[in-house]
């Protein structure tokens, strides 16, 4: 009978994953000659439950570590795009300053030209002002006529001189304004460049923090996987494969949920648009019916029905609003046509960069950030875009997710305002995108719902 207790507990341990230490605690040392008591069974069950709790706790810890990494990565991405935005604004401000200086130099040159012309006229006037005096005009033959002629000439010269002075004054005013504008533009450029340097430092710190978090999470995951393997009495390699499979399943579920949410939002938007269109069409039809009724009142042979009236006026009756069943899905079907022209070149360029590293602020040739990749891809496609995700959206044509075509841009923001955009990717069809995601993750082609559904869409 002595061996029955260890045998039972051994069977329980094999099913539950208890260690030898657990067995020692579970066995009652004071009673070796009887079958397991209720207390023994309860203790064994509690030990199994504790192990299960430990496994769940380890997995929660891994999920929490991954969440910290995601948070740090998003913060780094936001900081990187904030730097791109500050750099873009600084470049624009510097270009405006250069243009203002060109205007100022032109205005200064014109002022000098007008100054010389006015000064020359003054000298010429003084030189030609010596002539017959009024007395000489009285005593010399024909003198009076000569005085009158010269007086008229002097008056004309004075009028011309006044006009040149006015032009000089106008040029001086323009030169002063141009100087003020150039100085203001220069100050704006200097301030923008100072802000860009500050944002660059913030982006560098955020990227370093994200990289440190990635290293910390990787080390913590390794430790937690060892702990998980110990708790489950399996090898670390097997624990790793199991955990990877679980995380992949969760990712697939998250992608499916994001896709479903995006489709529901698209259907709702389409339904609301159809309702508005139906209301407008109904109002227009009512107005047309009223006009037709007025026309019938003034005719001797009224039309047979409203449909004939609409046909005779060349206006078609309003179409009924579409229902939810006809609402488009957020992504095109799998049989979407192959991209061509500039779109094909843009996608081909992006695919060539797959596997290359993410580096914040980079736009090639061997490293990329999100907006640097989409900028160069569409540059290959023949369209110039700025190296800044917000500006890329603003300089493109906004579209709905139902209108997505290969080559369109996908944007992620923290709110419903485009100013909150901090990530951009290139849509390549069939629900897939190419992106430069974050530090430590290279350029990749992946589901557009791998993280969460985009909240802005645009066509360059």
From TrEMBL:
Keywords, sorted A to Z: Hydrolase, Protease, Signal, Thiol protease
A Pfam cross-reference name: NLPC_P60
Highest taxon, organism lineage: Bacteria
Region ranges (Disordered): 257-341
Signal peptide location: 1-26
Domain called NlpC/P60: residue spans: 340-460
InterPro entries: NLP_P60_dom, Papain-like_cys_pep_sf, Peptidase_C40
Biased composition (Low complexity): 257-268, 275-296, 308-328
Record family assignment: Belongs to the peptidase C40 family.
Name of the protein: C40 family peptidase
Organism (species): Nocardioides eburneus
Organism placement in taxonomy: Bacteria, Bacillati, Actinomycetota, Actinomycetes, Propionibacteriales
């Amino acid at each position: 009978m002595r061996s029955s207790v260890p045998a039972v507990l051994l069977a329980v341990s094999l099913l539950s994953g208890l260690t030898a230490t657990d067995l020692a605690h579970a066995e009652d040392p004071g009673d070796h000659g009887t079958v397991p008591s209720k207390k023994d069974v309860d203790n064994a069950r509690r030990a199994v439950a504790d192990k299960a709790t430990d496994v769940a706790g380890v997995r929660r810890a891994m999920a929490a570590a991954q969440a910290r990494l995601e948070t740090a990565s998003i913060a780094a991405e936001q900081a990187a795009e904030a730097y791109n935005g500050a750099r873009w604004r600084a470049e624009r401000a510097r270009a405006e300053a250069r243009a203002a200086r060109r205007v100022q130099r032109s205005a200064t040159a014109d002022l000098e030209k007008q100054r010389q012309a006015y000064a020359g006229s003054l000298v010429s006037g003084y030189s030609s002002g010596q002539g017959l005096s009024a007395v000489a005009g009285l005593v010399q033959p024909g003198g009076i006529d000569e005085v009158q002629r010269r007086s008229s000439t002097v008056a004309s010269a004075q009028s011309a001189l006044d006009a040149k002075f006015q032009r000089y004054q106008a040029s001086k005013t323009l030169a002063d304004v141009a100087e003020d504008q150039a100085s203001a533009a220069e100050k704006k450029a200097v301030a923008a460049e100072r802000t860009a340097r500050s944002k660059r430092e913030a982006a560098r710190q955020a990227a370093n923090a994200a990289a440190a978090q990635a290293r910390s999470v990787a080390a913590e995951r390794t430790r937690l996987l060892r702990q998980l393997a110990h708790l489950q009495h399996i090898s670390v390699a097997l624990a790793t494969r199991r955990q990877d499979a679980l995380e992949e399943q969760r990712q697939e579920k998250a992608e499916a949920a994001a896709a479903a949410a995006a489709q529901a939002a698209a259907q709702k938007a389409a339904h609301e648009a159809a309702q508005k269109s139906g209301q407008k069409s109904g109002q227009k039809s009512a107005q047309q019916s009223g006009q037709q009724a007025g026309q019938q009142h003034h005719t001797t042979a009224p039309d047979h029905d409203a449909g004939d009236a609409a046909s005779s006026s060349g206006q078609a009756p309003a179409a009924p609003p579409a229902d939810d069943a006809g609402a488009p899905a957020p992504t095109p079907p799998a049989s979407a046509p192959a991209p061509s022209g500039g779109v094909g070149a843009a996608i081909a360029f992006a695919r060539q960069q797959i596997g290359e590293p993410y580096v914040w602020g980079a736009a090639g040739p061997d490293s990329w950030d999100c907006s640097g990749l989409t900028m160069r891809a569409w540059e290959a496609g023949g369209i110039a875009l700025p190296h800044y995700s917000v500006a890329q959206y603003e300089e493109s044509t906004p579209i709905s997710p139902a209108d997505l075509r290969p080559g369109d841009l996908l944007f992620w923001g923290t709110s419903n305002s485009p100013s909150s955009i901090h990530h951009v990717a290139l849509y390549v069809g069939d629900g897939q995108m190419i992106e430069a995601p974050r530090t430590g993750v290279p350029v990749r082609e992946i589901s557009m719902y791998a993280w969460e559904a985009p909240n802005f869409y645009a066509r360059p």
